[in-house]
Specification:
Largest interface: A-B, 40 and 40 residues
Distance between the termini of chain A: 47 Å
Strand order of the largest sheet of chain A: 5-4-1-8-9-10-11-12-13
Oligomer: homodimer
């Protein structure tokens, strides 16, 4: 089924205790697409500047990413520079340059307007609403956001929440949005604003899928080496949505499995700088790691035979 | 099967954003026993001062706790005073008074020396070794420790590690002990020092059971109200060991189920100040909550019938 993402397409400069990158391929739409396209073709809407190394996007094309909705504008591409702490638990933004992203108004190609699975990546909620209004009959709409929009565009964000099926954010965003530090109360607060489900990403602690009266938890895949957490949340979203689109299903059982695909894609993402963690990863690799989650999580609750 | 714990029996004064307690029943052996005895009788070894409200311990006796190994010494009981942050994520120790605990040398009653399931709660590793040497033929030995002993009694602690089956600590302790911030590498480091299993408790994020080449994760039970995290780790240990003792089993499958009982007991513990979260909790309550973990965690990995 058709899967569409709108989000940032950026050049990231990242410093971690293990190395650094300069102007590497990044942004929410890129991480989402690289992960999601391992499972299902992905259509991308976004903007890049005249300085963007288009060839690098093309290099990712064989995986089934349709970049034809990416506008090329005069000016500089969106750039983000950040530095992680020694234990990768926190990061500091050193620089954000919006560039051509500042004037971006998303306009979907006709072929994209019939998308059935829609992910509104972390951009201005006004733009998220504009994209939503251009998609004719989506089966499911999932959106992300961040602290910046929670503070500066709260009204638009609440308007958006009333119109989406799911919010997918990290725990600090859920806390800030709801004003509640208890993550389960925060989840319920969000459900009361429209979405039928909330996914709360918790980094190395995994993620929660919260529905009315029901919660599901998936841990992160156990990794002894983590190099770069940048984009892990978007890769999670790509795996989650890619699985749903491939299955053409949006019921709870499929969403729970989608959580496993999300966590799996997050684990590949953090295993290399930028999107390099995905190099050479096949669908079969993904399925094998997904199967390992059964042993990692399933509670053998019935007494075994003596 | 006989289950023995050695640990502190304290009077705790705790400040949280939701209230406070003064000289309330606390200490690792108390939390362990109150939780564990819901599943299996518990024998306790420890010391209290002449000021200890023995009647309060007696009040817990109907649950199957044998306090006959608790020495009553002249002097003041062990006291701890602490204050939690607004989100209960961190705490500050305001005061620790060892009292009679400073001169404590554990001496097990004859009837306790045949204990088959042994939990060495967080006390001086020298004393943990002394207790271990007095138990004739334990089926399984699990020990806890804390940052204070990791820093001040590292040699004794490593000696102890070589002689126990499992170390059960929280994540910051595992990191400090191993000198590694990656929790999975930290777990492997510990396994290389003797224990066949490591349980790493992660508070609201649940707990990991790490064995050579295999990891299991259990989340915390979702709670919208948390009042007092004090003792949750010891309650977890009590549930874990109580389940193993009741089952008279120490294989991996039972340990995974024991993790669910541990997480369940942790959830009762944090739901009230001190040990009050356990008031009125029946075995049936526990079993019902344990069953809820299946829906919370199990990955429906096979495709459902169409």
């Amino acid at each position: 089924m058709s899967l569409l993402v709108v989000g940032s397409i950026a050049l990231d400069s990242v410093f971690t205790p293990f190395g650094e990158t300069a102007d590497a391929l990044g942004g929410s739409a890129v991480y989402f697409s690289v992960a999601g396209s391992i499972l299902n073709p992905v259509q991308v809407v976004g903007v890049v500047g005249s300085d963007y190394p288009i060839a690098e996007l093309d290099r990712l094309a064989p995986r089934g990413i349709d970049w034809s909705g990416v506008e090329r504008a005069d000016g500089e591409s969106f750039r983000w520079k950040g530095k992680y702490s020694y234990d990768l638990q926190s990061r500091e933004t050193l620089e954000t340059r919006l560039g051509v992203f500042a004037a971006f108004r998303p306009k979907l190609p006709q072929a994209f307007r019939d998308a059935r699975f829609l992910f509104l990546g972390n951009i201005d909620p006004e733009l998220q609403l504009e994209v939503l209004s251009q998609v004719r009959r989506p089966e499911i709409v999932v959106c992300d956001t961040m602290n910046y929009w929670i503070q500066s565009k709260r009204d638009d964000l609440l308007k958006l929440l009333a119109r989406v099926d799911m919010l997918m954010v990290n725990d600090s965003e859920a806390r800030e949005l709801s004003g509640d530090w208890n993550i389960h109360r925060a989840g319920r607060w969000i459900l009361e604003r429209g979405p039928k489900q909330v996914v709360i990403k918790q980094g190395e602690y995994g993620a929660l899928l919260i529905e009315k009266g029901r919660t599901f938890h998936i841990p992160a895949y156990p990794l002894e080496e983590v190099f770069d957490p940048t984009g892990a949340g978007d890769a999670f979203a790509g795996g989650f949505m890619g699985y749903l689109a491939r299955s053409n299903a949006v019921d709870t059982q499929h969403m729970r499995r989608a959580m496993v695909y999300g966590s799996t894609m997050g684990s590949y993402s953090v295993s290399g700088f930028g999107v390099r963690g995905f190099e050479g990863v096949t669908t079969e690799d993904v399925e094998q790691r997904v199967r390992q989650f059964v042993d990692l999580t399933n509670v053998p609750i019935a007494e075994p035979a003596p």
